[in-house]
Amino acid sequence: MDDPRHDGAAASLRRLRLIARHTLGEAVHLRLTLLLGLAGAGLVGAALGLRDFNFGGAELKFLGDFGLGVLGFFGMLLAALTMAQLFFRDLEGRAACFALARPVRRWEYVAGKFAGVAGVLAIFTATLGLLLAGLLAGRAAQLGLPPPDLRLLLGACGVLWLKSTLVAAMTLLVCSYAGSALFASGVGLMLTLVAHLRPLAHDGGMGWLRVWPNLALFDGESLLNAGQPVSAAWLLGLTGYGAAYVLLFGTVAALAFRHREL
Q1: Which residues contact 103 (CB under 8 A, 6 or more apart)?
Q2: From 7, 74, 90, 132, which residue has the greatest number of CB atoms within 10 Å?
Q3: Which one-letter DSSP state was computed for residue 94?
């Protein structure tokens, strides 16, 4: 049951931070996180098999597109599976009950779980992003070409991180009322697929998609291929767009979890 006392924003933030730190520690030690990290790194590294062929600048473009595609795919998969697994691990292990027996509000618990998963997604994205930057810089030196613009690559990785956190928020919404991690992760991935179909919303039969977030906007590959640094206004607008949906999904998840029996 939610604690009725209101002890200030600082105490609330401290509790949220503790839950997020605990969730981050659990996520880092998950075999799933390690598996996806190694698989993503392996796929990015496999692109180096092209070093036997000299395609010049086209090869760097392929490496960038391939690496960002791997990062985006595994980032979304990690977001859905990790969120569902960690959420239901706490429910089944009664850790959620122990936490909520203390002066922790349910919305703080939900927000802390999301913040922890967002943290592990940031680590995952930064690790593979740095690996990809090293691969591109090394291959550019071998080909005698100028190194890729690091600002573009960092911007693309940031956009993909926003995309994965949005997937985590959608999965969190399902977790708040679902009965199992398998169901929550499966529905979360289905909702992710629906969000990728958002550009079809202008068609008559797909008009209902207009209420759902458009994950096609978070296209890291197109950002890198544009060759021009993105404007701060565009990036701020995209961040606000993602944050608005994260807040919406998080609010609905907190309301649903508030009425859930543990």
Answers
A1: 3, 5, 7, 15
A2: 132
A3: T
Tell me the C-alpha distance between 72 and 25, whole Å. 22
Residues of the chain with pLDDT under 70: 1-7, 32, 46-57, 201-209, 224-230
Tell me whether residue 132 is in a domain.
yes
Instruction: Domain count for the chain, please give it.
Output: 1
Q: Chain-centre distance of CA 21, in angstroms? A: 17
Instruction: Looking at the chain, list the stretches that DSSP marks H as alpha helix, in order from N- to C-terminal side.
Output: 9-28, 31-46, 57-92, 95-101, 106-143, 150-175, 181-196, 220-226, 232-258
Residue 13 lies in a domain: yes
Task: For residue 62, give the nearest of 155, 157, 158, 135 by alpha carbon.
Answer: 135
Long-range contacts of 135-139 (CB under 8 A, 24+ apart): 135/44, 135/45, 135/47, 135/48, 135/63, 135/67, 136/60, 136/63, 136/64, 136/67, 139/48, 139/51, 139/59, 139/60, 139/63
Burial of 36 (0-12, 13-18, 19+ CB in 10 A): buried
pLDDT tens across 164-203, in order?
999 999 999 999 999 899 999 999 999 999 898 877 766 5
- Quick check: helix, strand or coil at residue 148? coil
43 lies in some domain: yes
How many C-beta atoms surround the C-beta of residue 256 within 10 A? 18
Domain of 125 in residue numbering reads as 9-258
Per-residue pLDDT of 112-140, as tens digits, reads: 999 999 999 998 898 888 888 888 888 77
| Tally of CA atoms within 13 A in the half-sphere of 12 that contains its CB | 14
- 79 assigned to some structural domain: yes
